[in-house]
Design a protein that fits this description.
binds magnesium ion; six-stranded mixed β-sheet; single chain; binds adenosine-5'-diphosphate; 10 strands; four-stranded antiparallel β-sheet; alpha/beta; 237 residues; Rossmann fold; 9 helices
Protein backbone atom coordinates (compact mmCIF):
# COMPACT_ATOMS: atom_id res chain seq x y z
CA UNK A 1 0.00 0.00 0.00
CA UNK A 2 2.78 2.48 0.94
CA UNK A 3 6.42 1.95 0.09
CA UNK A 4 9.22 4.20 1.26
CA UNK A 5 12.47 3.70 -0.63
CA UNK A 6 15.84 5.16 0.38
CA UNK A 7 14.12 8.22 1.76
CA UNK A 8 16.39 11.00 3.00
CA UNK A 9 15.66 14.48 4.26
CA UNK A 10 18.49 16.93 4.71
CA UNK A 11 18.49 20.55 5.80
CA UNK A 12 21.09 23.28 5.44
CA UNK A 13 22.36 24.33 8.82
CA UNK A 14 25.21 26.83 9.19
CA UNK A 15 26.28 26.13 5.60
CA UNK A 16 26.49 22.39 6.36
CA UNK A 17 23.96 19.76 5.43
CA UNK A 18 22.34 17.99 8.34
CA UNK A 19 20.68 14.58 7.86
CA UNK A 20 17.29 14.50 9.54
CA UNK A 21 16.36 11.18 7.90
CA UNK A 22 18.92 8.90 6.36
CA UNK A 23 17.92 6.42 3.62
CA UNK A 24 14.80 5.05 5.25
CA UNK A 25 13.28 1.88 3.75
CA UNK A 26 9.93 0.67 5.00
CA UNK A 27 6.70 -0.83 3.62
CA UNK A 28 3.26 -0.33 5.12
CA UNK A 29 0.60 -2.89 4.23
CA UNK A 30 -3.18 -2.67 3.92
CA UNK A 31 -5.34 -3.33 6.98
CA UNK A 32 -2.45 -3.01 9.39
CA UNK A 33 -1.70 -0.57 12.18
CA UNK A 34 1.85 0.69 12.56
CA UNK A 35 3.27 2.75 15.37
CA UNK A 36 6.35 4.88 14.76
CA UNK A 37 8.14 5.58 18.00
CA UNK A 38 11.51 6.88 19.13
CA UNK A 39 13.09 9.68 21.14
CA UNK A 40 12.22 13.33 20.59
CA UNK A 41 13.98 14.66 17.53
CA UNK A 42 14.51 11.22 15.97
CA UNK A 43 12.63 12.24 12.80
CA UNK A 44 9.13 10.81 13.34
CA UNK A 45 7.18 13.94 12.39
CA UNK A 46 9.55 14.60 9.50
CA UNK A 47 8.87 11.11 8.11
CA UNK A 48 5.08 11.52 8.20
CA UNK A 49 5.27 15.06 6.77
CA UNK A 50 7.26 13.67 3.83
CA UNK A 51 4.59 10.99 3.26
CA UNK A 52 1.83 13.60 3.29
CA UNK A 53 3.81 16.09 1.19
CA UNK A 54 4.16 18.90 3.71
CA UNK A 55 7.94 18.56 3.30
CA UNK A 56 9.77 17.72 0.09
CA UNK A 57 12.10 14.74 0.03
CA UNK A 58 15.80 15.29 -0.56
CA UNK A 59 16.38 11.79 -1.93
CA UNK A 60 14.37 8.62 -2.40
CA UNK A 61 10.84 7.72 -3.43
CA UNK A 62 7.39 7.22 -1.95
CA UNK A 63 4.92 4.87 -3.67
CA UNK A 64 1.23 4.77 -2.77
CA UNK A 65 -0.59 1.80 -4.29
CA UNK A 66 2.37 1.44 -6.71
CA UNK A 67 2.04 5.06 -7.88
CA UNK A 68 5.07 7.26 -7.40
CA UNK A 69 3.77 10.16 -5.29
CA UNK A 70 7.18 11.59 -4.33
CA UNK A 71 6.59 14.90 -6.13
CA UNK A 72 2.79 15.14 -5.86
CA UNK A 73 1.38 18.19 -4.04
CA UNK A 74 -0.47 17.63 -0.76
CA UNK A 75 -3.98 18.06 -2.20
CA UNK A 76 -3.40 15.34 -4.81
CA UNK A 77 -2.18 12.94 -2.11
CA UNK A 78 -5.28 13.78 -0.07
CA UNK A 79 -7.44 13.05 -3.13
CA UNK A 80 -5.74 9.67 -3.54
CA UNK A 81 -6.97 8.73 -0.06
CA UNK A 82 -4.36 9.78 2.47
CA UNK A 83 -5.53 11.45 5.70
CA UNK A 84 -3.31 13.16 8.21
CA UNK A 85 -3.81 14.51 11.72
CA UNK A 86 -1.18 17.03 12.78
CA UNK A 87 0.90 16.82 15.97
CA UNK A 88 -0.20 20.41 16.56
CA UNK A 89 -3.60 20.89 14.89
CA UNK A 90 -4.08 24.06 12.92
CA UNK A 91 -7.01 26.40 13.36
CA UNK A 92 -9.15 27.80 10.54
CA UNK A 93 -10.66 31.16 11.43
CA UNK A 94 -14.17 31.54 10.09
CA UNK A 95 -14.73 27.82 9.59
CA UNK A 96 -17.09 25.85 11.82
CA UNK A 97 -16.60 22.28 13.00
CA UNK A 98 -19.43 21.08 10.75
CA UNK A 99 -17.84 22.84 7.73
CA UNK A 100 -14.53 21.10 8.36
CA UNK A 101 -16.19 17.68 8.56
CA UNK A 102 -18.23 18.37 5.39
CA UNK A 103 -15.13 19.50 3.47
CA UNK A 104 -13.08 16.56 4.77
CA UNK A 105 -15.70 13.94 3.86
CA UNK A 106 -16.57 15.65 0.55
CA UNK A 107 -20.31 15.77 1.28
CA UNK A 108 -22.94 17.49 3.36
CA UNK A 109 -23.33 15.39 6.50
CA UNK A 110 -26.57 15.09 8.43
CA UNK A 111 -26.53 16.12 12.10
CA UNK A 112 -26.81 12.41 12.94
CA UNK A 113 -23.68 11.60 10.95
CA UNK A 114 -21.78 14.49 12.51
CA UNK A 115 -22.95 13.29 15.89
CA UNK A 116 -21.55 9.79 15.17
CA UNK A 117 -18.10 11.13 14.27
CA UNK A 118 -17.96 13.57 17.17
CA UNK A 119 -19.24 11.14 19.77
CA UNK A 120 -16.53 8.67 18.75
CA UNK A 121 -14.00 11.26 19.86
CA UNK A 122 -15.92 12.06 23.05
CA UNK A 123 -17.52 15.33 21.96
CA UNK A 124 -21.22 16.13 22.01
CA UNK A 125 -22.29 17.30 18.56
CA UNK A 126 -24.88 19.69 20.02
CA UNK A 127 -22.10 21.64 21.71
CA UNK A 128 -19.58 21.52 18.91
CA UNK A 129 -20.95 21.45 15.35
CA UNK A 130 -21.44 25.20 15.21
CA UNK A 131 -18.28 26.09 17.10
CA UNK A 132 -15.74 28.09 15.17
CA UNK A 133 -12.37 26.41 14.61
CA UNK A 134 -10.42 29.16 16.29
CA UNK A 135 -8.06 29.43 19.21
CA UNK A 136 -10.95 29.46 21.71
CA UNK A 137 -10.95 25.66 21.41
CA UNK A 138 -8.45 23.94 23.71
CA UNK A 139 -5.57 21.89 22.36
CA UNK A 140 -7.33 18.68 23.43
CA UNK A 141 -10.60 19.72 21.75
CA UNK A 142 -8.76 20.52 18.53
CA UNK A 143 -7.01 17.15 18.61
CA UNK A 144 -10.36 15.40 19.00
CA UNK A 145 -11.97 17.40 16.18
CA UNK A 146 -9.05 16.50 13.97
CA UNK A 147 -9.52 12.82 14.79
CA UNK A 148 -13.22 13.17 13.89
CA UNK A 149 -12.12 14.75 10.62
CA UNK A 150 -9.97 11.72 9.77
CA UNK A 151 -12.82 9.35 10.77
CA UNK A 152 -15.24 11.20 8.48
CA UNK A 153 -12.95 10.73 5.47
CA UNK A 154 -12.98 6.90 5.61
CA UNK A 155 -9.67 6.72 3.76
CA UNK A 156 -7.41 3.72 3.20
CA UNK A 157 -4.33 5.38 4.73
CA UNK A 158 -4.61 7.34 7.96
CA UNK A 159 -1.64 9.03 9.59
CA UNK A 160 -1.74 10.41 13.14
CA UNK A 161 1.11 12.36 14.72
CA UNK A 162 1.01 11.92 18.51
CA UNK A 163 -2.80 11.72 18.73
CA UNK A 164 -2.61 11.33 22.51
CA UNK A 165 -1.00 14.73 23.07
CA UNK A 166 -3.28 16.92 25.20
CA UNK A 167 -5.90 14.19 25.62
CA UNK A 168 -6.78 13.16 29.15
CA UNK A 169 -6.72 9.62 30.49
CA UNK A 170 -10.47 9.05 30.24
CA UNK A 171 -10.46 9.51 26.51
CA UNK A 172 -7.24 7.55 26.15
CA UNK A 173 -9.34 4.37 26.25
CA UNK A 174 -11.53 5.90 23.59
CA UNK A 175 -8.50 6.66 21.48
CA UNK A 176 -7.46 3.02 21.37
CA UNK A 177 -11.07 2.10 20.48
CA UNK A 178 -10.94 4.54 17.56
CA UNK A 179 -7.83 2.88 16.17
CA UNK A 180 -9.36 -0.55 16.63
CA UNK A 181 -12.38 0.65 14.61
CA UNK A 182 -10.06 1.58 11.74
CA UNK A 183 -8.80 -1.97 11.21
CA UNK A 184 -9.89 -1.93 7.55
CA UNK A 185 -7.41 0.86 6.80
CA UNK A 186 -3.67 1.17 7.01
CA UNK A 187 -2.93 3.33 10.05
CA UNK A 188 0.39 4.95 10.85
CA UNK A 189 0.48 6.40 14.35
CA UNK A 190 3.39 8.34 15.79
CA UNK A 191 3.28 7.71 19.53
CA UNK A 192 5.27 7.30 22.73
CA UNK A 193 2.45 5.67 24.68
CA UNK A 194 2.65 2.02 25.63
CA UNK A 195 -1.14 1.61 25.35
CA UNK A 196 -0.92 2.69 21.72
CA UNK A 197 2.15 0.54 21.07
CA UNK A 198 0.04 -2.39 22.32
CA UNK A 199 -2.49 -2.06 19.48
CA UNK A 200 0.16 -2.00 16.75
CA UNK A 201 0.64 -4.88 14.34
CA UNK A 202 4.15 -3.59 13.87
CA UNK A 203 6.33 -0.98 15.55
CA UNK A 204 9.06 1.07 13.90
CA UNK A 205 11.67 2.48 16.24
CA UNK A 206 13.44 5.56 14.87
CA UNK A 207 16.68 6.89 16.25
CA UNK A 208 18.77 9.75 14.85
CA UNK A 209 16.99 9.59 11.49
CA UNK A 210 17.45 5.84 11.04
CA UNK A 211 15.19 2.84 11.62
CA UNK A 212 16.85 1.25 14.60
CA UNK A 213 14.47 -1.68 14.90
CA UNK A 214 11.18 -2.88 13.44
CA UNK A 215 8.91 -5.63 14.74
CA UNK A 216 6.25 -6.65 17.24
CA UNK A 217 5.89 -5.04 20.66
CA UNK A 218 7.59 -8.09 22.19
CA UNK A 219 10.54 -7.65 19.89
CA UNK A 220 10.78 -3.88 20.31
CA UNK A 221 10.14 -3.51 24.04
CA UNK A 222 13.54 -4.70 25.29
CA UNK A 223 15.11 -2.23 22.89
CA UNK A 224 13.00 0.61 24.19
CA UNK A 225 13.51 -0.36 27.82
CA UNK A 226 17.24 -0.64 27.48
CA UNK A 227 18.00 2.21 25.21
CA UNK A 228 15.54 5.04 25.40
CA UNK A 229 13.94 7.49 27.74
CA UNK A 230 11.30 6.88 30.41
CA UNK A 231 8.64 8.63 28.35
CA UNK A 232 8.71 5.71 25.92
CA UNK A 233 8.08 3.26 28.73
CA UNK A 234 4.80 4.95 29.62
CA UNK A 235 6.14 6.21 32.95
CA UNK A 236 5.01 9.75 32.25
CA UNK A 237 1.36 8.82 31.73
N1 LIG B 1 13.21 23.07 9.53
C1 LIG B 1 14.08 22.58 10.39
N2 LIG B 1 15.21 23.25 10.72
C2 LIG B 1 16.10 22.72 11.59
N3 LIG B 1 15.94 21.54 12.21
C3 LIG B 1 14.83 20.86 11.95
C4 LIG B 1 13.84 21.32 11.04
N4 LIG B 1 12.84 20.41 10.99
C5 LIG B 1 13.19 19.42 11.84
N5 LIG B 1 14.39 19.69 12.40
C6 LIG B 1 15.11 18.82 13.34
O1 LIG B 1 14.99 17.52 12.84
C7 LIG B 1 14.95 16.59 13.90
C8 LIG B 1 13.73 15.70 13.73
O2 LIG B 1 12.55 16.46 14.00
P1 LIG B 1 11.11 15.79 14.12
O3 LIG B 1 10.89 14.97 12.90
O4 LIG B 1 10.13 16.86 14.42
O5 LIG B 1 11.34 14.82 15.38
P2 LIG B 1 10.30 13.98 16.24
O6 LIG B 1 8.95 14.14 15.65
O7 LIG B 1 10.83 12.58 16.20
O8 LIG B 1 10.38 14.52 17.64
C9 LIG B 1 14.98 17.40 15.18
O9 LIG B 1 16.31 17.43 15.65
C10 LIG B 1 14.53 18.76 14.72
O10 LIG B 1 15.05 19.75 15.57
MG1 LIG C 1 7.12 14.96 16.34
Amino acid sequence: MLEIKNLSYKIDEDKNQKDILNKINVTFEENKTYVITGPNGSGKSTLVKLIVGILNVTEGQIYFNHKNITSLPINERVDLGISYAFQQPITFKGLKVRDLLDIASGKKNSVDQLCDYLSMVGLCAKDYINRSLDDKLSGGELKRIELAMVLSRKTKLNIFDEPEAGIDLWSFEQLTKIFSSLKKSCNIIVSHQKKILEIADEIILLKDGNIEKQGSLKEILPFIENKTCHKLRGKNE
